[in-house]
Sequence to fold (917 residues):
Amino acid sequence: MKSNKNINQKNSIFKNWLVILVAILFIALPFIINAYWIDVLFFFGIYALLGLSLNIVLGEVGLFDLGHMGFMAIGAYTTAILNTSFGIPIIILLPISAIAAGAFAWLVCSPIIHLKGDYLCIVTIGMGEIVRLTLNNNPFGITGGSNGVFGIDFPSLGSIFVVDNSTKFYYYIWLIVGLTIVGLVNLQRSRIGRAWNCIREDEVAAESTGIDVRSYKLLAFLLGAGLAGVAGNIYATKLMIVSPESFSFMESCMLFCIVLIGGMGSIPGVLIGAAAISLFPEVFRTFAQYRMLIFGVAMVIMMIFRPGGIWPRKRGALKFESLLIKAGEENG
Amino acid sequence: MAKDNNNIATMIRSKQENKETDKTNKVVLETDKLTKKFGGLIAVNNFDLKVSQGQISSLIGPNGAGKTTVFNVVTGIYKADSGKVLFQGEDLAGKKPHQIIKKGIARTFQNIRLFSNMTCLENVMAGQHCRSREGTWSSILQTPGQRKEELEIKKNAEDRLKQVGLWRWRDELAKNIAYGNQRMLEIGRALASNPDLLILDEPSSGLNDKESEDLIVFLKSLVKENLTILLIEHDMNVVMGISHWVTVMDEGKKIAEGLPEDIYTNPQVIEAYLGKDEEEEE
Amino acid sequence: MKIVLEQLLNGLTIGSFYALIALGYSMVYGVMKLINFAHGDLFALGSYLGYTLLVFGSSYATVTFGIWGGMIAAMLIAAIGIGIAGTLIERIAYRPIYSVGRLPAVVSALGASIVIQNGIMVIWGPRPQAYSSQVVPSVMLNIGGIKITLMQIVVLIISFILMGLLFYIVQKTTFGAAIRACALDRSTAALMGINIETIIFFIFALGPALGGMAGVMVGMYYRKISFVMGWNYGLKAFTATILGGIGNIPGAMIGGLLLGVLEMLGSVYISTAYKDVFVFLVLILVLIFRPTGLLGEKIAEKV
Fold:
């Protein structure tokens, strides 16, 4: 028991160091690599944010959501339209995009949240497709049809803080990913996160244990969509253009894979999954037309050898104030 | 034969306890002409049940008699077709399971339903969900209030785990502990919500003799703390050993109720239930 | 009125494609509880296989069997080829991970789908191909003022024969009863002496074979085929499967036909651009009121 605890402590010290090391590496990276790879890492960040947002719905609650790009599209188009038509600053649109995507998710999901597994899955696919097709059809002439909306500003606060080049965008996205991770880790360790996991494990038991299953499922969709909306905002400002084909069903499937390749409900897993999905095609660029073929094969092999994902969430002792654990140990 | 002697001994014991608890006879849970149909099948038919404060009441009957359905209606998983469920005088109609547990009725399931991939401690912590209230934002920001509540939840959960004797398994995943322990964990999770009424669906099924005996002792200790218990049970030793009141059900209807020793000798009950059950078991 | 009838026929034609593909989804789902995401791409592969057979084998096949015989031959060979491909995918991508739950299989299926799609692109090139008019005759008929192509009639007849055949196999034969038993409860079916391996082999051969034939027919009907079409048709067919009630064979047929008709009605009465939006809206509405599809059984969850 004692030696076990020592190992645990060593492990957590090692983990802390690892986190610090990775953080330093991330801050230093733009000084080492060229602009192309900085952009690649920016998109890694976008995928990470999207993966984290889907992870709330799919990983924590176990709801099959294959239309997640639809929420991102709502966020991206909210930003694009309000910015280009009314000149509202991007920074203000960041929370507005999140709210718009969240509100959309809440409205759409309320009537369908009782559906089970695959039925919910097809409805989310349908929802994502409806969003994409509608944007493509240029309703009321505001979405620009298949050309999309272009001429979106950079995010800025006054004239000093302007995110206008690759390096700044890189820091911008990873700052937001970092904050998101902190928030989500806190959620995982709260009664909210626990309630979500209970629903994933056994819905009937969760309901009988006092968890309002319906509300918590909706909350997951709301938060997940909100985060996807944030990702949409950043994506739109980086590319300065949004068009419907960025939000295809295929992309939603890729997000699904990010969560599962990494490990359901595991935050480090999502980061690894996002890295795999966004970096793999770049690394294998030399294989040209064969790279997606290799990618598909890799996905199959991956699932055969690590079906639980690369970094599944481990559940063990809950780490709280050490005092309390000590007190508990003495009593037990 | 030895088994029978044992029964009689326990019956006498329970009789004595009955006398002690007779004075507190307030009805906690009452079903009034409860009816539940599945298609053409009437699972529960005009069923009346009374559960008195601070007592252990048992609901017995052959397989398919509709006992679990009664539980599911009481805890809000099914909606009754007609009739009422009254808990402490309040009609529970239209209440959802998560609201009913908040009113003070916690339950376990016939085929254990734990949160398999969560630790035992987390399972019991989840049981306190309806007694805690910190919201999404305070959880994301980990406000001092949220931390304090979370620590309280953990402390209570630890106490409950010790109470059901699972302290040493606190960090094990629920799916990895022994079957008997899983039953106790489920009871612990239900107790974590501080219920007034605990509903147990065949708590001793799958337990060995020793575990069953421990369970009897444990349930009796709970009643001493003024908890009311309603259980479905097949093991006659358990039923006769701890029940203050027994209701017998067959084909959705109540066929008898009374003190355990009366039920034990009731010819109608023996015909409907005990005889049948023995045949099935042998 | 004539226009409505014509559109109805067009809808039924498309619907029968969806239905044939949907059957593959539904059969696999019924027994394995797995959404075979690679199924749509197997359908596309069938289309390309038929294309190659008809273009490169046309001189030989048409000389030997005549122009219609050549087409039938192409369909049969495509069916066999895709059937084999289907079982191969099951062996390689799904079988090793059945035991670990359903979600890894989804990723594996998506991986297989990407492999097939890009395999087609590598072999046949990224540009769309077309079934030439030399191998597929284009004859316009006028029956009582209703315009219909000969190909449409052929497609409808073949589709309905295939669906009828499958319906007969599943509902009337002992083998079909075994499939249905597996769909209800696989372990009990195994205890009753049903060879699960055989059933899995057949559903993964039969479903894709039907999809492959649908692929050849889509090529003959629309002429133009592309390597990404598997996703579009797959998505629609999957929608049809859910609409009818997943795992339910007659449900898949009805769902497919209904979806085709809805799509056509949507494009006539609403707008071509919004026809898919209309289709998905109908699906969502159906699911709100019938959470397990039109013919899906109510799942009374045992507590």
Remarks:
- DSSP finds 13 helices and four strands in chain A.
- Residues 177 and 183 of chain A are 10 Å apart (CA to CA).
- Chain A has two domains: 1-32, 36-248.
- Residues 2-32 of chain A form the longest helix (31 residues).
